[in-house]
Amino acid sequence: MFLSIVIPMIISLVFPFLNWRKKAFATISTILLLIPLAVISWLSVIYGLREPVLDPVFFSNPAIGNFSMLLDSISAPLAISIGLVTSMIAWYSLKYMDHRFEEMKKEDHKPASWGVYYMLYILFSATMIGTVLSNNLIEFYIFLEVALLPSFLLIAFYGYGKRERIALLYLIWAHVGALSFLVGALVLGLNVGTFDYFNPIKIVANLGLGETLPEAIRFAAFMTIVIGLFVKMAVFGVHIWLPYAHAEAPTTVSALLSSNLIGIAGYALIRIAYVLFPADFRAIAPYMLGWALLTIIYGGLMALAQDDFKRFLAYSSVSQMGYILMGVASVSAIGMAGALMHYAAHAIGKALLFATAGVLITQLHGLRSLSKMGGLASKMPITASLALIGFMHITGVPPSLGLWSEILILTGVANFAIEINQFISTTILLLIGIGLSTAYSFIAMKRIFFGKTTESTEHAIEARWTLLIPMIVIAAVGMIFFLMPQFLVDPMISSLNNLLKLPVPG
Questions:
Q1: Residues 6 or more apart from 102 whose CB is under 8 A from it?
Q2: Were both Cys, which of 139, 265, 286, 407 would link to 67 (CB 3.0–4.6 Å)?
Q3: What are the distances in angstroms from CA 395 to CA 345, 350, 400, 417?
Q4: In the chain, where the domains are located
């Protein structure tokens, strides 16, 4: 697994020095990103995700711990989703970035480099996979920070509007989140003698390792890790950077930021924060549930208020992170499994929707205003169908993976709400949040694709297959997982059940 991630990164470093045609860059980049997807998928099928699959340790230090790659039922939904979306959007980039480069020539007359773009794209994509497969706090942090630099440069070089300023805003917020995480990680690791949250030698999670810290610093270390992950996840209150970065990044990068990057922090809340501090995690779980519900409702209200399609999708992502946080906060195997499944559902759905935004931008001369769209279903039927599938995934309408993720999340949250005597208030807020999610999704669908055509849309035509085929592949994989959810769900619930029932040392 490690080599399948590192080799594409190393190869990409020579891209800026090559004088290839754009199609060659797109083809090679897609193949390079299909390598980790193929390896992860093959291992998942061969081992059935019933037992952890570990690479040999590639770095070991008595004070730091062991660096390895861990694929199990908890990390697999993320690793597969990232591999799918990044490889398909790599090919989608061929047509979309060609359009963007033409726009940039008119803006500042600077020649754009396909080699630089695809180098940064591969580095960003591969490091996200490395992040979710890590088993050590320092290893996780390194991959997380390495992912930050190419994503920052992709926004600064190829974004819209005041792209340099927005890229800097993104960099500062993302680095603050990572720094907060690092402070907590250093306090933990330097005091207990290792940074491993999963021991690759003993093949066991280091459950409760953080609770061996002295009482005076334990909760502070835990909270700095959690707050850092909240910033990365862009939940309410620390979400300020997300609408700007996701709206003004090139749409191919927005598709990765929204569908892949921010949800990794939700996974880390389970894999790292809960594993290391289970008692403290349970203590703040009711507050996290409230924060999750607030995030869902706030994101939904803000999405309804948007006219810019990409900014609408950005606030939708804020709302969707609330669902993931809600599943995590249930501290139950079924709720946490739902959160991880919702990562996959959101990745598929939001990749399709940002890709739809890219199609509209290329076909309608940069149009992003919802109020100027309408009647596109008859003119762009394939795009309309794919967009509908995207909205179905994030709202949980069958046949979509989002149906299973929401059932799991709601079941876990209902049980937890009963346990903390907050069932009625939680139900009311949930109904409001779900209603908003459904409303903003299908109101946007109606505004874009139905009703009367406008001056901006009356001459629209369907996009080329270069844009549509990657979207069709993403949608098809989502359908397969809807039909076969047990492949991921059964081993995931089993693993989480075992983790939650383990006795905490000390």
A1: none
A2: 139
A3: 9, 11, 9, 22
A4: 2-501
